[in-house]
Write a structure and sequence with these properties.
about 425 residues, alpha/beta, ten-stranded mixed β-sheet, binds N-(iminomethyl)-L-glutamic acid, binds fe (iii) ion
């Protein structure tokens, strides 16, 4: 990617998705024949080209979009992208009918990723994650949430969070760190009930205070499900995280119905994620509490489970985000728009909902919606540029990437594989 920075004017924007219905047509706030002016890292103007204010002072760097599409920078609000080792044998075994237990018995499953991640150096983890982040950036993603959770000991979890902090200093997208020491139980904690209880106490008494003191994460996530943490264990971890000032997220109702979504709502979690098996009580609780639903169709498809149905969340007025869940076991992909396409094609989501799910509602799932996820004056100048004429093409042309570049904090970065836009000085 190449970079140009200064005041930046995007002119000849054929379709501008503002994600603010007060600024344009329909739920995505669509403006035709638009312009966007960025000053510093903020949006100064986003709207009809005819109303673009006169630019005073130095001529802005100007991109001619040739009638194409601009959206807010895409936001991938749920990933586990710091890991070593692949799980291709697990994948092949599962396709041949192997159960989770058979896969674990021959050394596969999530604990095999924990072994590979613990054995990898910091630099190896950095290099692996950097490649994944670059692949995401090239698709128009400007913010990525990244969870720990393949360390599962105090030093290993803190090390992964330190790697995320280092990555965030050098990556183009903003990274939002989430602590997930409660991803599963490490082998050492699986010997008996006392070891299991000890691991929960280690999270509560050692990991969380260290994470909070060192400000290594903004959120804490717990996988509450059959084979993972119980509701009571989840409550213990999440309550401590909340006391220490972390926001809460929950992997809920993925494998079975546990009412983890009810707990997420009760504890004031910002989001509950997966939700394929959510109960009506869970939906009602989320609707009452304003919890964002993060749908992860890639993981459901990969595990050959039913996708969470958008109609159920829509009926309760629950905001829906969509994310990759990028991880080696259940969703080895960085293709966020493909996830939105899957949720539309197989999960009952509308085109407008899908676009909002990877922008505005993804920002809400990270509590960043006052800063990004929509294009209006004062918001962060994070944009995605696509060689499309109509926002619906983002879903219609499925499987391919049409991103030609991003604007991050007001600076333009071209996707190298894309044909360049005409770049001039002045309007
Ligand atoms: O989000 N549900 C739990 N965690 C991941 C899977 C992690 C793994 O299998 O490595 C998920 O699907
Ligand atoms: Fe996940």
């Amino acid at each position: 990617m190449s970079q140009f920075s200064s005041s930046l004017l995007l002119r000849n924007v054929g379709a501008l998705v503002t994600c603010d219905p007060t600024l344009g047509a329909g739920p995505v706030g669509l403006v035709r024949d638009a312009a966007v002016l960025c000053v510093g890292d903020r949006i100064e103007y986003a709207g009809p080209a005819a109303h673009l204010p006169r630019v005073l002072g130095e001529e802005p760097l100007t991109l001619d979009l040739d009638g194409c599409l601009v959206t807010p920078g895409l936001i991938d609000c749920h990933t586990h992208l710091v890991f070593a080792g692949e799980r291709i044998d697990d994948f092949q075994g599962r396709l041949a009918g192997d159960s989770y237990t058979q896969i674990a018995a021959r050394g596969g499953g999530i604990l095999s990723t924990v072994r590979a991640t613990r054995a990898a150096s910091d630099d190896d983890l950095m290099a692996l994650a950097t490649a994944r982040i670059e692949a995401a950036t090239a698709q128009g993603i400007t913010t990525i949430e990244v969870k720990s959770g393949y360390g599962l000991s105090t030093p290993d979890e803190l090390r992964i969070l330190e790697v995320i902090r280092r990555l965030s200093r050098q990556a183009l997208p903003d990274l939002v760190a989430t602590f997930m020491g409660a991803h599963t139980f490490p082998a050492e904690a699986r010997v008996d009930a006392a070891a299991r209880a000890d691991y929960v106490e280690e999270i509560v008494r050692e990991m969380l205070p260290a994470v909070a003191t060192r400000k290594l994460a903004r959120f804490c996530d717990v996988f509450i499900d059959t084979g993972a943490f119980t509701l009571e264990e989840g409550r213990r971890v999440l309550s401590q995280a909340r006391t220490l000032g972390l926001g809460l997220k929950v992997h809920a109702e993925q494998i079975s119905q546990t009412d983890a979504a009810v707990l997420a709502a009760e504890l004031g979690a910002i989001s509950a994620e997966h939700l394929e098996h959510i109960s009506e009580a869970g939906l009602e609780a989320m609707a009452r509490a304003g919890t964002v639903a993060v749908l992860l169709p890639g993981a459901a498809l990969f595990l050959r489970d039913e996708l969470a149905r958008a109609e159920r969340f829509r009926a309760h007025g629950i905001p829906m985000a969509v994310s990759t869940d990028h991880n080696p076991g259940t969703s080895p992909t960085s293709n966020l728009l493909l996830m939105a396409q899957l949720q539309v094609l197989a999960g009952g989501m509308t085109l407008d909902e899908a676009i909002l799910a990877v922008t505005w509602n993804a920002a809400r799932a990270l509590d960043l919606h006052e800063d990004r996820g929509a294009l209006r004056r004062g918001m962060r100048a994070d944009l995605a540029l696509f060689r499309c004429r109509d926002p619906r093409e983002l879903i219609y042309r499925f499987g391919d990437s049409h991103c030609t570049g991003i604007v991050k904090d007001g600076a333009y970065h071209r996707v190298e594989s894309a044909r360049p836009w005409l770049l001039t000085r002045g309007s």
